Amino acid sequence: MGELKNWYTSKTVWGGVVAILASCSHLLGVEIAADDQGGLADSLTALAAAAGGLVAIWGRISARKRLR
């Protein structure tokens, strides 16, 4: 079985989110080009990974028990 990763580091998940947002934004009169959608998904993936790293660091700093 392959290596597991968190959902928020998946470009597929973020691509789906961007597709949904692009579709909804179209209803509001905002157009997002297909090329921009790919770049936006990459940026959101990187942002989510960075946020995950910050949460992990904060969790370790604020933990009440020490590591062995």
User: What is the H/E order?
Assistant: HH
Q: Give the beta-strand count.
A: 0
Largest sheet descriptor: none
Structural class label: mainly alpha
Helix percent band: 55-70%
β-strand percent reads under 5%
The general outline is: elongated
Q: End-to-end distance, in Å?
A: 29 Å
Mean pLDDT: 81
Q: Uncertain segments of ≥5 residues (pLDDT<50)?
A: none
Number of helices: 2
> What is the CA-based Rg, rounded?
17 Å
Structure overview:
This protein has 68 residues and is mostly helical. Helices cover 68% and strands 0% of the residues. The protein has two helices and no strands. Helix 1 (11-27) crosses helix 2 (34-62). The radius of gyration is 17 Å and the shape is elongated.
Note the main attributes of this structure.
68 residues; mainly alpha; 2 helices; 68% helix; elongated
SSE topology:
Blueprint: H1 11-27, H2 34-62
Provide a short characterization of the protein structure.
This protein has 68 residues and is mainly α. It has helices spanning 11-27, 34-62.
